[in-house]
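Reopening this one. Same input as before:
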Amino acid sequence: MTKLPYELFIGLRYTRAKRRNHFISFISLTSMLGIALGVAALITVLSVMNGFQSELRTRILGVAAHVEISGPGDMLSDWQDVAKVAAADPRVAGTAPYVNAQGMLTYDGAVRGAIIRGILPEREEQVADFASHMKSGSLTALKPGEFGIVLGAELARALAVIVGDKVTLIAPQGEVTPAGIVPRLKQFRVVGIFEIGMFEYDSGLALIDLQDAQTLYRMQDKVSGVRLKLHDLFQAPQVAADLLPRLGADAYVTDWTRSHVNFFRAVQMEKNVMFIILLLIVAVAAFNIVSTLVMAVTDKQPDIAILRTLGAAPSGIMAVFIVQGALIGVIGTLIGVGGGVLLALNIHVVVPFIERLFHVHFLSKDVYYISELPSQLEWRDVVTIAAVSLVLSLLATLYPSWRASRVNPAEALRYE
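Same output, byte for byte:
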């Protein structure tokens, strides 16, 4: 039978043995549970934040493009050629032209400013996800020459319109008349209402047919640009860089990581801050191991002295108490990882149960656009949290173990 090194054998025995001082056992238990609680909380919170990040990214990119190609002054001619060059890249899933302009919408005395986007409905479905977010009407109801319009839900609510009502669109470009500059007005019939779940789009975006937008804003056959959807949205920066040389010097290419950089950077910063704050729970629990081992060293001084007189080296004594403290950290970390992973994977079951039990609703639909806690477990986060917890636990054992190695056998046995 393989024999364990005496340092490991004694360290494991000290951990399992019943102590005369029950307070030491209590602190060991609370340290272990504290580490487990901190690790589980870290895994769960980071998984929820990953879920929020993914949900927000999905909602934003359901309306915004992965990559946008535009021309000088937001005027791009021969968009079909540009779309053909972009579609030749195997990483591009779809292309669609667009006209981007500003306008004022009025109805029955209500006035709201909006971003007016001219689209081709059949191609827009290749790059955006409006179809699954339509509350009423349809995107395919936008027909050239019929001057239909699709509004965001908040914009429609502010104007108090429903499908079938006619709103007046005021374009900023005006007509010069003897009476002065008169803005151009055109009546549009509401043919659909969408709700993405992002206030920025629901309250300030209106869709009209591409040809109607070209007519209203006097763009002839030009467009503002071409929007691209990729098979892998995280390849957007590389795709944008690769397309630029093929499109010529008069083309501008941007991707979602740059157009929404401040928003996603803020979300990532919030995640990092939460990681640091919750890591303090693990740190406090880990450094409780210091108290446990200091008292254990005091309690075991006669045993340490006997080991030293039998020939144990100071490094061996130090290893005994490192094993004892590290075992507390390992068990606490394993319990925390198991509990955190289970909770993160079942957050959609646990949260509704708590809400029903206490008759509360954490994310009310009347206030929040995301009314359920999303969770996305990333094993990279789990490994990082477990590694940090183990390192903190190991560091907490060093000082008490060093003190144990410095015990003088003669002094410890004087009154024994």
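So the earlier flakiness isn't reproducible anymore. For the record, The first strand starts at residue 67 and ends at 70.
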